[in-house]
Write a structure and sequence with these properties.
6-stranded antiparallel beta sheet, 528 residues, alpha+beta, 6-stranded mixed beta sheet, DUF4905 domain-containing protein, 31% helix
Length: 528
C-alpha cells in the first residue's frame, strides 16, 4: 500500500497514548532512514548521484567521484558560498558511511524541521549516462497531514516494511560478495598461491578496491576481481576510478596500479614486507590482472590483461563531471586493457563430488583433498541431462586450473537446500540431506553459515557419511551427546538400504563456514 492511501486512516486512543506511539515511530523511522542512506551511499557507483528534496526544494545532494563521496546540505545556499561541501575520501570503511548517514539524518531533521523521512522525495542516477538508480526506501513524498491521518500503527507498519526491504537488499549484496570470495579463494587455493588480501566473507567492511591480491612466485603479484554477471548482461559494465584527475577503466594499467596502492589491507602488507614494497616501487614486480565473470548458470569466464611493471607513465584519463547529465544511457563496454581479454573456455560445466580417500579410481581422474589428513577427495562431475558423470581432462590445458573454483562457485549458486533442525536424545542437529549435492555442501562456506546460525555455534562437527547426506552438530558436546552423534554417523555410514554410495566415517571441523580440520573416524572424537 502506498503512503498516498494513508489519508483513509484516523487517530485512535487517547492523545497522550497516541503521542507516545508517534514518538516511538519517529525514532525508529529516522534510524531506518540513516541505515538506508548509509547503504545507498556505500553502494553508489562512480559518477552516481543521490538527491533528497522536500517538494520543490533540494535539501541534500551526494555525488560519488573517483576519489571521494561528496555531499552538501541545502545545495542552493552552497552555490552561493554559504554552505561548504563535505567529503568522505575513498576507500572508506562502512562504519564511516554509517556515521555520515546518522549525521545527515540529524541535520535534515533539525535544519529543515522534517517530521518523518517519508516526506522526502528521493532521486538517484548515473551522471554521465542518466541511468536511473534505485533509491530503496529513502523517500515516499508523503505530506505531514497524510501521515498524521494514517495514525502511528499504520506508519509503524510502513517503517517495518522499509526495514525488511533494507535487510533484503543488504543480504542480497552480502550473498553476491560471498560468491565473489568463494570463487577467488578457491582459485588461489587450487593454484597453491599465497593470498595477501581478500577472502574475508564479512560484508560490508569497506569500499571495494580489488577482490584479491596474492603472490604468484617471488616476483609476481596476481590481482583478481570477480564480477557476478547474474543478470546475464551481454557486456561487462564499466568500472572506473579516478587517477591523476581523470577516470581510468578496469583492466587499464593505471587502474590496476592505483587499485593495489589504494587498498588499505595491501598497504599494511607492504609495511610488514618492506622488500616487497621496494621491489614493487622499483618495477621489479610483475603485476598480473585477471577478471573472472560468473553468469547466472555459475559458468565462469576468465579475462587476462597485459602485465604491469611499475607505475604507468601516462593514463587514459577521462574528464570528470559532477553535474547531472541528460545523456541517454549507453551500453556497457568490455573492460579496458592494452590487449583484448582472453576468454578461457572450460571443457565442461563442473560440479564437485566427494569420494572416499581410498577411492580405487583416484589415479585415473584429477582430484583434490577436501581437507588435511585422510579426508575425502574432490573430483569433478558434469550434468549430462539424465544424471551426473565424473569427468577426466588434461589438468595442464589452458584454463583447466580454473575448474575447481568454477565447480565450487556452481555449488554455491545451487538453490539453497533447506536446513532441518532437530534434537535427538538431547543432541541438537541440523541437516540438509536428500539432495544431489547435500554432502558436497560442506565445501560451500555460504551454505554452511546457515548451519552455524541454526545451531548458534561458530564451530561445528559435520558428517558426510554417504552421498546426499549431511549432518551438523555443535562443536561442544557432552559425553551423552557425543555418543549419540557417533552412533548416528556410524549407523548412516553402514546403512546401504537407500543405495547411496559411502563417503567417509570421518567428520569435518568447520569454523565460520570453512573446513579447518578433519578427523578420519567419528569414534575418535572422544580423544580429539
Amino acid at each position: 500500500m502506498g503512503l498516498g492511501s494513508l489519508w483513509r486512516r484516523g487517530l485512535t486512543g487517547s492523545a497522550e497514548a497516541a503521542d507516545e506511539r508517534w514518538l516511538a515511530v519517529e525514532s525508529t523511522a529516522w534510524q531506518v532512514f540513516s541505515e538506508e542512506l548509509a547503504l545507498q551511499l556505500f553502494m553508489l557507483p562512480v559518477e552516481g548521484c543521490v538527491c533528497l528534496s522536500l517538494r520543490d526544494r533540494e535539501v541534500v545532494r551526494f555525488e560519488r567521484g573517483g576519489a571521494a563521496l561528496t555531499w552538501v546540505l541545502d545545495p542552493d545556499r552552497a552555490d552561493q558560498g554559504a554552505v561548504r561541501r563535505q567529503r568522505l575520501p575513498w576507500p572508506a570503511r562502512y562504519q564511516e558511511y554509517l556515521r555520515v548517514g546518522d549525521y545527515v539524518a540529524r541535520e535534515l531533521r533539525s535544519r529543515f524541521e522534517v517530521w518523518l523521512p517519508a516526506q522526502f522525495i528521493a532521486r538517484a542516477w548515473i551522471d554521465d549516462t542518466g541511468e536511473v538508480l534505485s533509491t530503496g526506501g529513502l523517500g515516499h513524498d508523503a505530506d505531514a497531514a497524510a501521515i498524521r491521518a494514517a495514525g502511528p500503527e499504520e506508519i509503524a507498519d510502513a517503517v517495518e516494511m522499509s526495514r525488511l526491504g533494507l535487510d533484503a537488499r543488504r543480504q542480497g549484496a552480502e550473498a553476491e560478495h560471498q560468491l565473489r570470495m568463494i570463487c577467488g579463494n578457491n582459485l588461489f587455493q587450487h593454484r597453491g598461491l599465497e593470498i595477501l588480501t581478500g577472502s574475508d566473507m564479512t560484508w560490508p567492511v569497506r569500499d571495494r578496491t580489488v577482490d584479491f591480491i596474492g603472490l604468484e612466485g617471488p616476483d609476481t603479484l596476481l590481482v583478481v576481481d570477480v564480477f557476478p554477471n547474474l543478470d546475464d548482461l551481454e557486456e561487462i559494465p564499466l568500472v572506473r576510478r579516478e587517477v591523476d584527475g581523470g577516470l581510468v577503466e578496469q583492466g587499464d594499467p593505471a587502474y590496476i596500479w592505483s587499485m593495489i596502492h589504494a587498498d588499505p589491507d595491501f598497504r599494511a602488507v607492504l609495511e610488514q614486507r618492506p622488500h616487497l614494497a621496494e621491489a614493487l616501487a622499483q618495477g621489479r614486480m610483475r603485476v598480473d590482472y585477471t577478471l573472472i565473470v560468473m553468469d547466472s548458470d555459475k559458468s565462469l569466464r576468465y579475462y587476462e590483461f597485459e602485465p604491469v611493471f611499475g607505475p604507468p607513465e601516462t593514463t587514459a584519463a577521462v574528464d570528470i563531471s559532477y553535474e547531472p547529465s541528460a545523456a541517454a544511457p549507453q551500453s556497457p563496454q568490455p573492460p579496458a586493457g592494452d590487449a583484448e581479454p582472453i576468454e578461457l573456455q572450460l571443457p565442461f560445466d563442473p560440479y564437485p563430488l566427494l569420494q572416499p580417500a581410498d577411492w580405487p579410481h583416484r589415479h585415473l581422474i584429477p582430484h583434490w583433498p577436501s581437507a588435511s589428513g585422510n579426508a575425502p577427495l574432490i573430483v569433478l562431475t558434469a550434468d549430462m541431462g539424465d544424471g551426473y558423470a565424473m569427468q577426466s581432462y588434461d589438468p595442464d590445458a589452458p584454463g583447466n586450473d580454473f575448474l575447481l573454483p568454477a565447480a565450487i562457485a556452481r555449488l554455491s549458486g545451487l538453490q539453497r537446500y533447506p536446513w532441518e533442525t532437530d534434537e535427538l536424545y538431547g543432541l541438537p542437529t541440523v541437516n540438509c540431506s536428500g539432495h544431489d549435492f547435500s554432502a558436497e555442501k560442506v565445501l560451500d562456506p555460504r551454505a554452511m553459515q546457515g548451519a552455524h546460525d541454526a545451531l548458534d555455534s561458530t564451530r561445528l562437527w559435520v558428517s558426510t557419511p554417504r552421498r546426499t547426506c549431511l549432518l551438523a552438530v555443535p562443536y561442544e558436546l557432552d559425553e551423552r551427546q557425543l555418543m549419540v552423534f557417533q552412533r548416528l554417523v556410524t549407523l548412516t555410514y553402514e546403512d546401504d538400504s537407500y543405495g547411496n554410495a559411502p563417503i567417509t566415517l570421518g567428520v569435518f571441523l568447520l569454523e565460520n563456514g570453512r573446513i579447518i580440520d578433519f578427523v578420519e573416524d567419528v569414534n575418535l572424537l572422544g580423544a580429539h
